[in-house]
Amino acid sequence: REAALNTKKRSISIGTAANIDAFHTDENYKKILGREFDLLVAENVMKMDVMHTNIDTFDFSQSDELVSFAKQHSMQIEGANLIWSNQVPAWITNGGYNRDELLGIMKDYILNVVGHYKGQVKSWVVVNEPLDTNEANQKSIWESVIGPQYIDYAFRWAHEADPQAKLYINEFDTELINEKSNSYYALIQGLLQRKVPINGVGFEGHLDVAIQYPYDQLVSNLNRFADLDLQVQITEADIKLQNSPDPLPEKFKQQASLYADIIHACQEVKQCSGVVLWGFTDRYTWIPNFTHHPDQPLIFNAQYQPKPAYNAIKEAL
Ligand code: XIL
């Protein structure tokens, strides 16, 4: 089967995050989700606060719904994410657990979840956003209680639970070559030196038309990680318009050409497995909640009309 968006060179996957509320209430949403993409990531329902409801309880009901939809539509499933600073259940953040206890909770969680989806979820974001853990909004209980070794443990347990699954690390604002992506690179080199079982590097791709992303730099940045013999992937692409003063039609064009750049960059980098969008319709994008400004970062408008960005991606694929 070919996803409608993916008709010509079939070299990379084209994926999207799926929003469970839209999935439950909006038939148009489901129709496009099943038609246009060949990879699905749950936007929220495969995160720890949803799946690990208490120390001895797991809830896979909503994630199972998305997984069975993906299977029916021959879409690959990516799991996101196992360990992150955010969306940690309150019973953990308020639990006062010590290092050994928290490691025990982590191990039990990873073995259960990855075990539950063994053979079905082909790739996992094992550790999400390991950098910036000192910022107030990114304070990670994992790093502060366990120490930086929490990353090694998480990958080793995920590998133990499903040795076939491709295991990714994931980070934002690392698309270009700069101080942050250099730190990301150094962190990953350390993992490889310690023989941590990592297969891939995710670059979120929350971009902005008001910022320049020189194409050659996107490619050379992806290439330096790929040269570590790892897969790379754009994991959460969306492109904000709100920060540009240009007229809307102009912004739509810039957005379209930046989406095309990401697709082309991924096609050009041999080990790039695909591009995943963080949703597909402006009707349900997370951006306005996050930035507190209206925005239109995705490829269909709120009425499900394809935007110039949609056509640019279709043309590029
Ligand atoms: C976001 C979701 O889109 C929102 O609905 C939720 O309220 C917060 O999380 N980086 C990530 C994603 O890795 O998991 C985040 O998703 C967006 C930023």
From TrEMBL:
Single annotated GO MF? endo-1,4-beta-xylanase activity
Q: What is one process in the GO biological process aspect for this record?
A: xylan catabolic process
Q: Which residues form the GH10 domain?
A: 1-316
Provide the E.C. number(s) assigned to this enzyme. 3.2.1.8
Which segments of the protein form a coiled coil according to its record? none
Statement: the UniProt record of this protein carries the keyword Protease = no
Catalytic reaction list:
Endohydrolysis of (1->4)-beta-D-xylosidic linkages in xylans
Entry keywords, A to Z: Carbohydrate metabolism, Glycosidase, Hydrolase, Polysaccharide degradation, Signal, Xylan degradation
Report the family membership.
Answer: Belongs to the glycosyl hydrolase 10 (cellulase F) family.
Question: Under what name is this protein listed?
Answer: Beta-xylanase
What organism does the UniProt record list as the source? Dictyobacter alpinus
